[in-house]
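Backbone-to-sequence.
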């Protein structure tokens, strides 16, 4: 078929990819109940497989054992125990299937970076990769990306300083190049490289974008060719979106994923909130007692991967906190996540035992002080350190402004200490933690609550 260049005739694997993506174009408009009914049918297949071939689940799924086909309900499913990262970490190989169905293809191992302090290892399959690829195409389609264009990625690549060579960036298509530079480069080096690449899209972490914007504001250098900034891997501060568009004229688009799961939710094409990718995952948000949260209430995120039969992750607690939103005006029936608050290690613990997710600086305030990176670390119930990366130390008056702003967010008179650093290290995957707790609160203590960010 080499003689046929148009219309294109896809390879069999790509044909399956496009067929799945076409189904997604239909199912995203289904009503929520229709989506749930189909999720439950797929869940039944997953649960039966897990009970019969995964040792970890021999005694964990008794609540649904013996159900007639089509009898599974969401309430019944919610009675199953939560699977924690510790459970997976301590399971050895007992969380992996001993009898993977042949149609799922080959198995591949995925290891998390351990950004929560608890790295885990799972297996994925060729079938999982097919779903991930089709979801990737949906994401690009939703946000009208030109697949022929160039993408510049600032991420962890562990390559030589010059960056990583061109790669394709969308499955099933002949795309423009994606070039990468390690996120460990200085912000000045990154910005100069980005300007030189003249890419249409930038892919990076929200915290890295913050540093790039600060560098751009200071130097006046801008990547004029950018049409869109694509972020992932971290929480997006509310002020980052307008800061990016105001300074660079490029909108910010975000996604929510977990390394061991893949895509969980994508930003809506018409709003800054997220749509759960229900064709591949079932997402729950539960409170400290395990009860479902209503919109407006912050809770723990549980994810069930509907198609990973190699390592079933059933009611898996990814370690994040999030909040449901209401139905979206775009008309899609996919559930809405209003906001994602971040990881368990990102919870501040007050002496009372209450915990919440702090948000410290707006980007405008950070720019005004010349701050490129800021990390707040809780060392005890009395002490908090503030690590600041700036071109030059702050004046004593600016230090007092910073301390006052952070103190208001902490909502307790902690002992604060400012420490100046050249840069704040990222975790092995390249992600950055704006806030990190070095204490281990009692999980049975006071619940996590949502609190407003401090505006300065």
């Amino acid at each position: 078929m080499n003689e046929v260049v148009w219309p294109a005739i896809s390879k069999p694997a790509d044909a399956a990819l496009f067929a799945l993506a076409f189904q997604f174009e239909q199912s995203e408009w289904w009503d929520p109940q229709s989506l749930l009914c189909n999720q439950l049918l797929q869940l039944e297949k997953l649960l039966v497989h897990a009970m019969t071939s995964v040792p970890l689940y021999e005694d964990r799924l008794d609540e649904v054992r013996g159900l007639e086909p089509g009898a599974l309900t969401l309430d019944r499913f919610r009675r199953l125990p939560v699977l924690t990262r510790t459970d997976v970490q301590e399971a050895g190989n007992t969380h992996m299937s001993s009898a993977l169905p042949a149609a799922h293809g080959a198995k591949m191992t995925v290891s998390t970076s351990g950004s929560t302090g608890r790295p885990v290892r799972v297996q994925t399959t060729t079938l999982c990769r097919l779903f991930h690829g089709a979801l990737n195409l949906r994401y690009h389609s939703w946000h009208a990306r030109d697949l022929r264009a160039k993408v510049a990625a600032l991420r962890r690549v562990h390559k030589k300083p010059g960056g990583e060579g061109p790669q394709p960036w969308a499955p099933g298509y002949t795309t423009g190049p994606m070039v990468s530079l390690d996120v460990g480069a200085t912000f000045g080096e990154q910005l100069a490289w980005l300007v030189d690449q003249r890419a249409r899209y930038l892919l990076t972490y929200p915290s890295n974008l913050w540093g790039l914007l600060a560098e751009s504001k200071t130097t006046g250098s801008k990547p004029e060719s950018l049409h869109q900034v694509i972020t992932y891997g971290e929480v997006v501060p509310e002020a980052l979106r307008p800061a990016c568009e105001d300074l660079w004229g490029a909108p910010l688009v975000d996604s929510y994923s977990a390394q061991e799961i893949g895509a969980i939710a994508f930003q809506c094409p018409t709003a800054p909130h997220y749509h759960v990718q229900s064709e591949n995952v079932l997402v729950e948000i539960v409170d400290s007692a395990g009860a479902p949260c209503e919109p407006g209430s912050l809770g723990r995120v549980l994810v069930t991967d509907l198609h990973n039969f190699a390592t079933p992750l059933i009611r898996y607690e990814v370690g994040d906190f999030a909040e449901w939103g209401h139905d979206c005006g775009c008309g899609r029936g996919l559930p809405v996540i209003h906001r994602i608050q971040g990881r368990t290690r990102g919870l501040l613990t007050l002496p009372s035992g209450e915990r919440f997710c702090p948000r410290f600086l707006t980007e405008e305030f950070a720019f005004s002080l010349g701050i490129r990176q800021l990390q707040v670390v809780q060392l005890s119930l009395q002490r908090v350190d503030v690590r600041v990366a700036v071109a030059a130390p702050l004046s004593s008056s600016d230090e007092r402004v910073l301390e006052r702003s952070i103190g208001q967010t902490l909502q307790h008179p902690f002992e604060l200490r400012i420490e100046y650093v050249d840069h704040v290290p990222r975790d092995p995957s390249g992600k950055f933690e704006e806030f990190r707790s070095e204490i281990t609160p009692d999980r049975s203590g006071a619940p996590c609550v949502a609190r407003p960010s401090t505006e300065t």
